[in-house]
Amino acid sequence: GSDLYVIRQLLDFKRRYPDRVHLIMGNRDINKMRIHQEMGRDDNLPPHDGVYWLRNHVQSTNAGDESDIVPSQTSASERLQFLLGRTMGSPNAFESRRLELQRERQFAQDNDDNTTISDRDVVQSYRESCHPVTGEMGNYLANATLAFSLGELFVVHGALPLTNPVLQQQIMKEEAESSHNQQSADCWKDLSFAMPWTSESGSQEASPSSSITTAKKAIHDWVDALNQFARESIDAWQQEADNDPPEKGSVWATNGEYSNKFPAYKLTQYGMGWTPDGKRNPTVVYSSWAVDGMPLRFVPDSNNQEDLLFARLVREFFRQSNIKLILSGHQPQGDMPLPIRIFEESQSTSRDHSSGSDNDEQRLPVLGWVLCCDTSYSGDTNWVNQDRQNLGRGRGPGFRGDVAVAETLVTIDSEGRLQDVRWHGVLCDGTAYETENLLESSSCAPSVGYLADGDWLPDQDGTPHETPWWAKAHLADGSILLSTAKGYDVSNYMAKPHESHVTTE
C-alpha cells in the first residue's frame, strides 16, 4: 500500500551508496513497463486488442468472450484497473495508490481530512511513476539487474531457469548420448537454453558458452549476458519514451514474444511465466524452486525422472560455479524465509518421513544453500496444534499483516567467502525471533533445509494436508520452526527440544 514511498527510499539508498546497493528486477517491476505503452500520455487512449495470455486462456477453456480480455477503449481509469487487476495480478493496486496519494496530500496540507483523490489522480500518478525516463519505476529498472553475484553469493528474483521443457530436452540429449554425468555438467557449459531472447527473436547473438571450456566461466558470462540484455531493453524503452502512442495492433502484449519489432519489450517477455505458444519461459525472474508451495523436487521420488534431473542440475550448478548461497524471492513462503539444503549427492526418497531419523542427512556433505525470502503472504500463515494465532492481515491493503517482518543477513569476507547466514524478524503471531547461523546448522537435528524427521512432527491429526513438513530454522532459543504448504496455504509448527531429541556421549 506504499509502493511510491518504498521505491523512492530504495532509489535514494542507491543514489547515496551506488556501489554498495544492488537492486534486483522482479516480474512485477518489469511488468510495469507496459503501463507507458498501454495507457498513453492522456485520455486519448492507444488502441488495445487485449493481452495474449488472457486470450489463450479464453480459447483453451471456452470461458468468457472478447469483452473479458479487451480493456476499455474510452475510460483511462477503467483501463488501468483492468491492466492492474486482470493482467498484472494486482487487483488492489488502484485503490492502494489512491490511499497512498491521499496520505501524501494530507501530510502536505497539514492533515486535512477533506482530501479527495480522484480516479484521474490515480491514473496520472501511474503514468508519471511508470514513465521510462522520469518515473520512479523507470529509474528503478534503469538501476536494477536481473542477477547479481558477489563471491559465493548469487541473487535472482526467481530461480534457475530449469523449466519442464528444458528438463525434457536435457533428458532426450542424455538418452541420445548415453552419458549422464557428462551431460549434467555440459548443461552449464552451454547456456543457450537460458537465453530465450536470442533464439525466439532470430538473433544471431552468440551464446556466452561459445568457445568456452569451463562451466564456471560459462555461468559467469551468462550472468553478464542477462544483465547486458536487461540494460539494452531498458535503454530501448527509454529511447522510445516520447514516441507517438502505438497504433491499432501495435501493443506488445497483444501478441507478445521476443520480437525485434519491440526491442524494449523483450525484457517484458522475459519477466513472464509463459511464452505466447503456451510453453514455460526459461527465466530467472519467474521460475520457482518450489512446486505447489514445497521444494520437494530437491527430494525427488526415485521414479520421477524430471525431478531427479532437476535436483542433479542444481547440484551441478553449485559445484561448477562455486556458488554457496542463492538468495531469491518470487514465491511466498509463509512468515519466514525457507532454506533448501543442496547436498553433495542425490537425496531421492519415497518421501515417507513420518518416522525414523534424519541422522544420515546430517552427515552428508553440503554443496550450498538456496534461501527463498518472499514473506509477502505472512498474514495468511496458519499455526498447527499450538496456542499460537496469526494476527491476520491487519488494517493494511496487503497480505503481510501488521506485525510480520523478516530480514536476511549475509556476511561475506573480503575474498568473497560466506561467513554467516541468518535471518531475524517477527512471526505472524507477533513472536520475535532470530535464527542460528545457517552455515553451522549441519550438525543439528532436524536438518534445516530438508524434510523434518518424524520425532519432531506434530500429531498427525493436526497436519492440514498430506504434504510433508520442512525444517525452516533453528532459533536462538533452541526451538525449531517447521513448515508445510499447499500452494499459498502455509502452516507453521514450533518444535521444542525434549529428552528424546538429546544425544549424549
TrEMBL record:
Classification via InterPro entries: Metallo-depent_PP-like
Protein name: Calcineurin-like phosphoesterase domain-containing protein
